[in-house]
Amino acid sequence: MSNNVHTGVNADTVKHVLFGAGVVYENVKLVDGEPVFEGATLLGATSGGIKLSIKPEYKDLEFDGLTRKTVGQTVQIGEKATIEINYAEVSETTIKQVLGAEFTKGTHYAHVGADRKLIKDNYVEGLCFKGITLTGDPVLLLFEHAICTSGFDIDAKNKDQSKFKGTFECVAPADGSDTLSWHLFLANEKE
Q1: Cα torsion 181, 36, 44, 90: sign
Q2: What would you measure as the largest C-alpha separation in the chain, in angstroms?
């Protein structure tokens, strides 16, 4: 290998470039370690993109006389995984997602009101981002269980399109596990 390399770009680089905003589904199932979209629902149009984040939380162990970070002295104590969606549609589907509430149908309107109890229906099952690389291969981030932590906050302005954010945080299953239920999928390399 030459020492004159000034970039990481190679002939395969474009195969790995994620391009476009992607889409988000709910009710994507994990079957035998693979995502299954049968019965899944597309959440609606976005404007301003979708942000994905997986961040481990670390604790540096402290010892007298040790004044620097040292290999082996850091432990992972948690993690946080989020999907932030910039919704373009104000619909029953999108509002249900961010508020975790069911609408009641009236004569002229569907409505939802405040509820002080957090119930199982407030959790979103199978929340999945699907993006596409320049070569058409999918990139998926699946949260088996998630909850919206942002609520509903919209800024309607004159002569501008209104949008609102929904930030969904991955949560561990209710089986006593201490591991978040997120899965990142990349298409297998083509030979």
Answers
A1: negative
A2: 73
Rounded distance between C-alpha atoms, residue 69 and residue 63, angstroms: 11
User: Among 6, 4, 29, 13, which Cα is nearest to 128's?
Assistant: 29
Separation CA 52–CA 64 (nearest Å): 38
Query: Contact, 101 vs 110, CB < 8 A?
Result: no
Per-residue burial over 155-175, b if 16 or more Cβ lie within 10 Å, else e, is eeeeeeeebbbbbbbbbeeee
List Cβ neighbours of 187 (8 Å cut-off, separation of 6 or more). Answer: 133, 137, 138, 139
Cβ neighbors of 66 (< 8 A, separation 6 or more) are 73
148 C-beta neighbours (distance < 10 Å), count: 22
| Separation between Cα atoms, residue 44 and residue 89, nearest integer Å | 7
Q: Which residues of the chain have pLDDT under 70?
A: 1-2, 4, 115-117, 119, 121, 191
pTM of the model: 0.86
Q: Where are the domains of the chain?
A: 18-62+80-186
Give the span between the Cα atoms of 25 and 92, in whole angstroms. 15
Query: What pLDDT, on a 0 to 100 scale, did the predictor assign at position 94?
Result: 83
